[in-house]
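Q: Is it fine to ask for two folds in a single conversation?
A: Yes, each is treated on its own. Send the first.
Q: Here.
A: Result:
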Amino acid sequence: MSPLPRTASAAAGFTLVDVLLVVAILSMFAAIALPTSKPLDAARLDVAAQETANALRWARSEAIRNGSVLDTSGTRIVGFDVSTTTNHVRVSDYSGYARGSNMAHPIDKKTYDLDLANDSATRGVTVTSATFINQAGAAAGSTAIFDADGNPYQYNIGGTPAAVSPLTSAVVVLAYNGATRTVTLESTGRVVVAGG
């Protein structure tokens, strides 16, 4: 006895086993790919927060190393500034009480200018706020300069030496996909990263 011949319409379809096999394979790929997306978001934000904290720490250590002088001449001043509009974090030379050139990064010797929104490790991270509070309790710009002891001072770019006053805190808030990290510069010069 010979088997029954297949018709053209039966040969063109998929069996239930074929469909189940494809669904099982797609489910395995989804199970592997989906849980890793959230930790990558957190890692991107953590890198941005650490880079911002490192910029503050390095600006402070350079001011101590170079003997930053906050006098009327404004010689040898190292500072940190952050922009909520461009999402940049910079370490710059503020000698003469004017924002000069960005300083060189201590490791790669390139300009110390972090573009949080576009750098590969931090792409998409934004600076949602930068609140620098001076001793009078007033919010004042988004620039911190340091004296030779590493104490932070508030300074408005383009101001006069009289515009310099001790900072009580500087808080930078970074955001990515609804999550935030906070980088705080305390009045002692200590830098703290929080959030998560």
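Q: Second one now.
A: Result:
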Amino acid sequence: MEARTVGADAATRTRRTRVDAERNRQRILRVARDLYATAGVDLPLETIARSAGVGIATLYRHFPRGKEQLVAEALVEQASRYLDAARRALAEPDGWVGFTTFVEEICAMQADHLGLADLLAMVLPADEQVEAIRRQANDACVELIDKAKATGELREDFAGEDLLLVLMANAAVLQVTRDAAPNASPRLVSLFLQAVATRAAITPLPAAPSSEQMREAMVRLAGSRGCAAGGGPVRAPG
């Protein structure tokens, strides 16, 4: 009887340990999602562990491959949003409308979630799930580009790599201007679409950021790089 009681107690402790471990794992993922959304993935794992109320050793027990694994698992749903947007764009009857809507939507998604902005500008070769989603999205993008070219409104020399370039550029712009000059990203996207359009597709640009907004963005960048922010007013060239 006593042996059975001891065995039952051990089983209960084991189950409790597993429940606690899973709770810690989900807490780490939840905190990582929240922090990546507002700060991007350039955060030390120690910051995430501390914010989740666990030690760094606990974080590594759950994510033994370190940052790449945590980023992939925390942002897999964001990667799926990218794929869903590409599929919606393909369903648009007008190829040029589908293409421009897709570019604008993805860049707006980057603005809303800096972790996604980072994810779209890099690869995680060790994570099969995220990279499988990326491959599907990229295949849809190739179809979308061909469909837009067929309308005569997208330049024939446009390449899929050009889309990656604007996503990288937008991610960088957002890191500097997201709060200080929120209209900078939409203007960049519009400039890009004007550049890749044939003459018939050109439309007016959104308003440019003000000098004050750009100065604030540049001051924030200096601060984030550990540099003293001072000196005279910053003026745009031209």
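Q: Anything structural to flag on that second result?
A: Two points. The chain has a mean pLDDT of 86. The chain has ten helices and no strands.
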